[in-house]
Amino acid sequence: MFAAIGIVVLFAMVFGGFLLAGGSLGPILVALPFEMMMIGGAAIGAVLIGNTMHEIKLLGGGFGKVFKGPKYSDQDHIDVIALCSKLMKLMRSEGAVALESHVTEPENSTIFAEYPNLLADDSVRNMICDPLTLMVVSSGTLDTNAVEDVIDNAIKVQLHELDEPQHAIQGLADAFPALGIVAAVLGVIKTMGSINEPPEVLGGMIGGALVGTFLGIFLAYGLAGPMASRLKQVNTHDAQMYQSIKQVLISSLHGYPQPLVLEAARSGLPPAHRPKLTDLMDMMRGR
User: Fold this and answer.
1) pTM of the full predicted structure?
2) Of 24, 45, 31, 30, which Cα lies nearest the Cα of 212?
3) 93 FRET partner, CA 20 to 30 A, in 107, 136, 207, 229?
4) Cα atoms found within 13 Å of the Cα of residue 59, Cβ hemisphere only
5) Cα–Cα distance list, 170 to 11, 121, 165, 207 (Å)
C-alpha cells in the first residue's frame, strides 16, 4: 500500500513541481515513448542476458512483494514458534519415534493441522520436517551441532533465493543512469545529424535527448532503488521465520527449559512484531 502511495507522491511532486515552475510536459511526452523503448528495452535485455527463467520468475515475484508486503503475518511468526515447540515437546516426552507420523506426513498431522497457513507453505514445512526426520531415522542420536549445521545450510540456500530478486532490482537501479546516458547520447547523435535545422528545431531535439538522462536517473533513484530497499526489508521480515524454527529446534535439542526456548525464538523477532513472553507461555499452556 505504501509503495503505491509513494509512487503517486513521487510522480505528483516531480512533475507537479516541473509544471508549477513553468515547464511544459509536451517535449517530455513526445520523447518519452522512444526514450522508454531504448532504456526499458535495454534493461529487459540485460535481465534476459543475466538470468535464467527461474530467476526471472523470482524477479516478478519480487516486484509483487514490494506492493503486497511480507508473506508472513505477525501471527504466522508466533504460530511457527508454537508449532515447533509442540513438536519438540512431543519428542522430549515420547522420543523421536513419536514424531515420525508428524514429520513424514505433515498433511495428516494433528499438530500441523492446527496451523493450516504453515502447513500449506512448502519452505516452512520442509525447514521443520527435514531436520526432524533426520532425528527420527537416527532415533534421536544425532549430535545437536550436526543438526544445527544442516539447518544453517538450509537457511542459507533459502535466503539466497529470497535475495536474488532484490539483487536484480538493485542491479537495474545501478544500470538505469548509464542506460539513460546511452539514450541521451543517441539523441545527441541524431541532433548533430540535423545541425542545419533552425534553433527551435534543434532545441526540441536536444530537449528530447535530455529526457533520456532524466528518465534513467528518475527510474534509478525514484523507483528501482527504493523498490530494492523495500524488498530487502520484506525479505528480512520473512526470513525470521527460518531463524525462529532454528532457535526452537536447536534450543530444545540442547535441553533448555521451555521458557528459555520460547525466549530464544521470541527475542529474534523485530521489536514492533515481538509478542510478550508471558503471552507465548500462556498460549503454550492452552490459555
Assistant:
1) 0.86
2) 31
3) 107
4) 17
5) 21, 27, 9, 28
- Those residues whose C-beta lies under 8 Å from the C-beta of residue 99, and which sit 6 or more positions away, are 87, 90, 91, 132, 135, 136
Reduced DSSP (H G I as helix, E B as strand, rest coil) percent helix, strand, coil of the chain, to 5: 85, 0, 15
Give the cell for residue 79.
504460530
The residue ranges of the chain whose pLDDT is under 50 are 287
Length of the chain: 287
Identity (one letter) of the amino acid at 149?
D
pLDDT at residue 148 in the model: 92
Each residue's pLDDT tens digit, 58-90: 999 999 999 999 999 888 988 999 999 999 999
- CA distance readout (Å), 55 to 2, 102, 106: 26, 33, 29
The domain segmentation of the chain, as residue ranges, is: 1-287
How is residue 152 written as a grid cell? 544453517
Name the grid cell of 64.
509483487
